[in-house]
Design brief:
globular, 10 helices, 7-stranded mixed β-sheet, alpha/beta
């Protein structure tokens, strides 16, 4: 590969019930999934984590699975030090966060962490560590039969996918969008923030990025919306809701890939006969990127 690519991700699997919130019992999920994603071996990876988890992560990836320390690096990051923490604390409902399966700090840090980069790579992408799993990838693309790993190991993440992702992004910022009208997923920020209000698509925060020269502007747009909306509306929106606003107000800077539903035929066996003809499953995007040049 002639260009240098870096993926940024994070694993904080013990936050459920704390002031931060997060999905419970996801330690194994995140690790096995990231191990599958690492098959994009032409890229380098940086994973933010806590001082509580870093030793076990190093053992899992470096010792148990012989992952190169040059390809996957871990960095301890204390979420209490996040940028705009004072603003977040001002409007955050801590009791609700304890019960939430999403951590606001990590959602925002997907963008804030960009400022730590020295821009020595040509392309940067954020990817959720848990993106490779049987809930969104059908059996056809799950390649392992061993316990645990069988639910996460997929051949959809590979160097062909990586190269095609870069080609597809071109000179735009790559994002994913879920149909939000027929298959409603999420509300939006206050419509007053839109140039022309549109809730038909919901932008997904699981995979996004592009050329390094695009990132400063993208992160600045996100931060400006985050600050202005939070202080004006006195509410903290999830990152995907802010990203949806960004897309509709700045369409010209994005390359978008759309899908309709997360489900596939293996986990929605009672779907109406024409359901998957009418609705595009998420994994179809991964499939199409793999085959884009064929």
């Amino acid at each position: 590969m002639s260009v240098k690519v870096k993926f940024i991700t994070s694993i904080y699997s013990d936050l459920h019930g704390t002031e931060y919130g997060g999905r419970p019992s996801r330690g194994g999920h995140y690790r096995w999934s990231l191990l599958s994603i690492l098959k994009m071996s032409d890229a380098d990876f940086l994973c933010y984590t806590s001082d509580r988890e870093i030793d076990s992560l190093r053992d899992f990836f470096y010792t148990q699975h012989n992952v190169s320390k040059n390809k996957l690096k871990f960095e301890i990051y204390d979420l209490s030090k996040i940028k705009y923490k004072e603003l977040i604390n001002r409007y955050k409902n801590t009791e609700e966060s304890k019960k939430s399966d999403r951590c606001l700090e990590i959602q925002y840090a997907k963008f804030f962490w960009w400022w730590n980069e020295d821009k020595t790579y040509d392309y940067y992408f954020w990817i959720d560590a848990g993106l490779s799993h049987c809930g969104i990838i059908p059996d056809l693309y799950l390649t392992e039969k061993y316990p645990m790993r069988q639910y996460y190991e997929s051949d959809l993440f590979n160097n062909k996918f990586l190269n095609n992702l870069i080609t597809l992004a071109g000179n735009k910022f790559f994002i994913l969008a879920k149909e939000n009208s027929r298959n409603y997923w999420s509300g939006t920020v206050n419509p007053k923030w839109y140039t022309n209000y549109d809730s038909s698509l919901h932008i997904i925060g699981g995979l996004f990025g592009g050329n390094k020269n695009l990132w400063d502007n993208i992160v600045s747009i996100f931060e400006n919306y985050f600050q202005n909306i939070s202080t004006t509306d006195e509410i903290l929106y999830m990152e995907e809701v802010i990203m949806s606003l960004m897309y509709f107000n700045h369409r010209e800077i994005f390359h978008i890939e759309q899908f309709d539903v997360w489900w596939h035929k293996d986990n929605y066996k009672h779907a109406p006969p024409d359901f998957f003809e009418i609705n595009k499953s998420f994994y179809k995007i991964l499939e199409q990127i793999n085959n884009i040049n064929e």
